[in-house]
Amino acid sequence: MEWLNILIVEDETPLAEMHAEFIKQNGGCRQIWLAGTLAQARTMTDRFKPDLILLDNFLPDGQGIELLRELTLSGYQGGIVFITAASDMDTVAEALRYGVFDYLIKPLAYDRLAQTLLRFSQRREALKDKARLSQRRIDEMFNTYARGGDRAPLPTGIDELTLMKIRTLFEDPQIRHTAESVAQQIGLSRTTARRYLEFFAANNQLIAEIIYGKVGRPQRIYRSASGG
Q1: Residue 20, pLDDT score
Q2: Which residues pair with 29 in a beta bridge?
C-alpha cells in the first residue's frame, strides 16, 4: 500500500481515535489528523492537504455532505470516504454525484474500511502509471468489484481483503514469489499463503512453475498470468 496522509472528521472523539488506531495498525498511513467540526475540517484540509478524508455526515456545525460539495467544486485532489449513519437515498445519491470514493455505514466494519483503504491506495498508484491500463485494472479503479456484481462467493478460508493484498504483490508481471515470500510480506503462515496462491492459479490469475535447484526440494514459483 502507498503511504497516505489521512484526515478523520468525526465529532465523537473516542470513535475517531478508534478509527485512527485501526488505520495505524493496518499499515499504509504516514500521518493522521482528527477534526471534530466542519470548521476544523476546512482549516485542516487547507493546511495539510490530506490524501484521503474519512468524513462523518452529522457534525456540530453542519453536515459533512456540505464539505464534500465544497471540496469537489474547489478541485480538491484527494479522496473522500463517508463514514456515517445516514443511509437515506438522498444523501447517498448526493455523495455519489459529488464523487465520494466510498460510503460506509455506521457502526463501521473495520474489515470493510481496510478494503476501502487498500483500493484507494491501489487507485492512486495506478493513476501514476503512464502506461495504458487493461479493462480489469480500470474496473478495479472504479470499484466495480467492490460493488459485488455476479461474482461467485469465495470458498471457505479465502477472504477478499487478503486476496487484494496478495494481488498487489504481483502487479509487476516480472515479479516472482514463493509461498514463503508471500507469507513474510503479508504476515501469513506459509500454508495459508499457499492456499491463496493456489486459488489464484486455479482461477488463471497466477501461473505456478516448478523450479528444480541443485540441492533441496523443488520450489513452486508463482508469477502473474498477465505476462512476463
Answers
A1: 94
A2: 4
Per residue in 128-148, is it b (16+ CB within 10 Å) or e — as a string? eeeeeeeeebeebbeeeebee
Contact 55, 79 (CB under 8 A): no
Cell of 88: 437515506
Spatial contact of 221 and 176, defined as CB atoms under 8 Å apart: yes
Q: Give the DSSP H or E segment for 222.
A: strand 219-224
What is the value of pTM for the model shown?
A: 0.62
Cell numbers at residue 19, please?
A: 478509527
* pLDDT for residue 37 is more than 90: yes
Per the CB < 8 A criterion, the answer to whether 193 and 206 are in contact is no
83-92: string of b/e by CB count within 10 Å (b at 16+)?
Answer: bbebeeeebb
How far apart, in whole angstroms, are the C-alpha atoms of residue 68 and residue 55?
A: 8
DSSP 52: E
Cα 77 versus chain centre, distance: 17
Q: Is residue 171 classed as helix, strand or coil in its secondary structure?
A: coil
Closest CA to 58 of 115, 112, 110, 15: 15
Q: How far apart are the C-alpha atoms of 122 and 17, rounded to whole Å?
A: 25
Dist CA 188 CA 57 (whole Å): 37
DSSP summary character for residue 219 = E
Q: Which residue has the cell 467544486?
A: 73
- Cα separations (Å) of 154 from 18, 142, 158, 163, 178? 29, 21, 6, 10, 22
**Position with higher pLDDT, 28 vs 85:** 85
